Amino acid sequence: MRLVSWNCNGALRKKFLELQALEADIYIVQECEDPKRCSDRAYSEWAQNSLWIGGSKSRGLGVFARPGLVLTEMQLDAKGLELFLPFKVNDTVTFLAVWTKEAGSPTFKYIGQLWKYLQLHADFLSAGKSILIGDLNSNVCWDKWDRWWNHSDVVKQLADLGLHSLYHHQSTELQGAETVPTFFMHRNTEKPYHIDYSFLSQELLQDAALQIGIPQNWLAHSDHMPLIVDLPNQVGFEHAVGGGS
User: Fold this and answer.
1) pLDDT tens digits, 117-158
2) Which of 85, 112, 174, 178 could form a disulfide with 108 if both were Cys (CB 3.0 to 4.6 A apart)?
3) Rounded Cα–Cα distance for residues 242 and 245 (Å)
4) What is the pTM of this model?
């Protein structure tokens, strides 16, 4: 099973073939248009097995799965927090797809949105096989010492739920000391940041592997690099039609 998370920087209808070349079973895409309200037929056909949320039809959070996988959106009230898409795959693995935004909040921007969401709905990630994945727009380097919530607090709460960052597990690097960026501000290689993450429950973490897209291949399409997560077959997807890696 392969998962890919990518902030496409808009206009996925023009870029989905590049994404498709990664041969994932599930794509979690930030800043993509709603395939049900897009006039591009090829994109709409590619996105037939999908979920999508967003305040604008041209910039939202989408989940796109290969045929045979069953996506079931979980009806959790986000209370206006942006943007979170909780779902299950084959009624077995629980996901929270994430694209944190400012959301008009003067205080709880970006990671603050996720912190508040976890105060509401953390329990659904605590049982069984769970994955939180996406663009968090955050890094421990921006923690503020006098704030009662920050990136480090979110990482700790996820650890208390049994979810750990695959990148940090694999690299053994500390939060804030990442050597491989996922984002280049203004597509400038001199302005690298690590702000995209995949947090996996222990049962999935041990055999999982992560790759991060190479700037030379992706900067023409987006300021973010894709996260490519490979999981073993024995994670609850094996009964899906068509198999998978």
Assistant:
1) 999 999 999 978 999 999 999 999 999 988 889 999 999 999
2) 112
3) 10
4) 0.94
CA atoms within 13 A on the CB side of 96: 28
3-state helix, strand, coil in the chain (%, to 5): 25, 30, 45
Domain boundaries, the chain: 2-230
Look at residue 58 and tell me whether its pLDDT is greater than 80: yes
Is residue 79 predicted with pLDDT exceeding 90? yes
pLDDT given at position 202: 94
Nearest partner of 128 among 89, 98, 97, 167, judged by Cα: 89
Query: What is the rounded average pLDDT of the residues 63-90?
Result: 97
Other CB atoms within a 10 A radius of the CB of residue 72 amount to 12
Distance CA 225, CA 244 (A): 23
CATH number of 2-230: 3.60.10.10
Would you state the structure tokens that stand for residue 235, as one six-digit string? 């994670």
Find the mean pLDDT for residues 12-39.
Answer: 97
CB 223 within 8 A of CB 188: no
Distance of alpha carbon 229 from alpha carbon 4, whole angstroms? 6
Strand partners, 94: 88, 130
Strands (DSSP E) contained in the chain are 2-7, 26-32, 50-56, 59-65, 71-73, 84-89, 93-99, 130-135, 163-165, 183-184, 192-193, 196-201, 209-212, 227-230
pLDDT value at 240 more than 60? no
The Cα 132–Cα 5 span in angstroms is: 11
CB atoms within 10 A of CB 44: 17
